[in-house]
Design goal:
The structure is a single chain. By secondary structure, this protein is of the alpha/beta class. About 25% of the residues lie in helices and about 20% in strands. The protein contains 7 helices and 11 strands. It has helices at about 5-15, 40-50, 80-85, 110-120, 135-145, 155-165, 185-195, and strands at about 20, 35, 60-65, 75-80, 100-105, 125-130, 150-155, 175-180, 200-205, 215, 230-235. Strand 7 (about 150-155), helix 6 (about 155-165) and strand 8 (about 175-180) form a beta-alpha-beta unit. The protein is globular.
């Protein structure tokens, strides 16, 4: 991770992991784990072989921290069932064997969950991007060279790519975007240029595992709209709209 050591130590103190995997325990002296596993060492391999745990749908798969844009970053424990509900029968993504998904999100950002697990569990392949997110030319070259079909791009980068380097989208059949308000004008413009491109507006907090709802946008569907809906809930998810007192809002209000 490229986070400052103080932030990493604070997250480790909050998560209280029993085991840690990596080559250097010395850089995180305050994490207080039971065992530090170096997968490259013989001792680390014996630790990994000896560790076993019964896993069920509610067992933790990973912990993730919010970005902190609305205050102190909050930690969320994500169970196996939350990821399964995201990636199994994902109607907002194509069902194409061998589908190539671009993996550019940092592992500390929950979009990486979708990039990795949806692709692996649905018979696709992952094309990893090692460069920086602002390198639109480099990303476009890699997407074209590897014949990538799908990519997650944050709203800010999506807008920048539409404005500055629209050819990035030419090889793609679907692009998922979100994390902030997505401009309907930018979606219209890129779909006018590439009518076969499907854009998915994904909405959801980190605590709900990447997406809560999705809006699948096909070319021409935003002709008279000034904004983009957040869409309908994904599989295994319900949305309740509450008023200021926490009461459910009646239909039509």
């Amino acid at each position: 991770s490229n986070l400052p050591p103080d932030r990493i130590n604070a997250q480790l103190a909050c998560a209280r992991p029993r085991f840690a995997i990596g080559p250097d325990a010395g850089q995180f002296p305050s994490c207080n784990v039971e065992a530090w596993i170096d997968p490259g060492s013989d001792e680390g391999k014996s630790h990994a072989a000896a560790f076993s745990s019964e896993v069920g749908p509610n067992s933790p798969l990973y912990s993730m921290f919010t970005s902190g844009t609305t205050g102190e970053p909050r930690g969320a424990v994500i169970p196996h069932r939350a990821v399964l509900r995201l990636v199994d029968d994902a109607w907002f993504l194509p069902n194409e064997p061998g589908f190539k998904m671009f993996h550019a999100a940092p592992l500390a950002f929950d979009a990486s969950t979708l990039e990795i697990w949806w692709t692996i569990l649905n018979g696709g392949s992952i094309v990893c991007w090692e460069g920086v997110g602002a390198d639109l030319q480099g990303m476009a070259d890699r997407i074209r060279r590897e014949q990538v079909r799908g990519a997650w791009i944050t709203a800010a980068l999506f807008h920048a790519a539409v404005d500055q380097f629209p050819l990035l989208f030419e090889p793609l059949s679907v692009v998922l975007t979100g994390g902030d308000v997505v401009s309907a004008d930018h979606v219209r413009r890129i779909q006018e240029r590439f009518p076969d491109l499907v854009v998915v507006n994904g909405y959801g907090p980190t605590e709900n595992t990447v997406f809560t709802a999705c809006e699948v946008i096909s070319a021409g569907s935003l002709e008279k709209q000034k904004s983009i809906r957040i869409g309908r809930p994904i599989r295994g998810t319900r949305i309740r709209i509450l008023d200021a007192r926490g009461h459910q809002v009646p239909l039509g209000r």
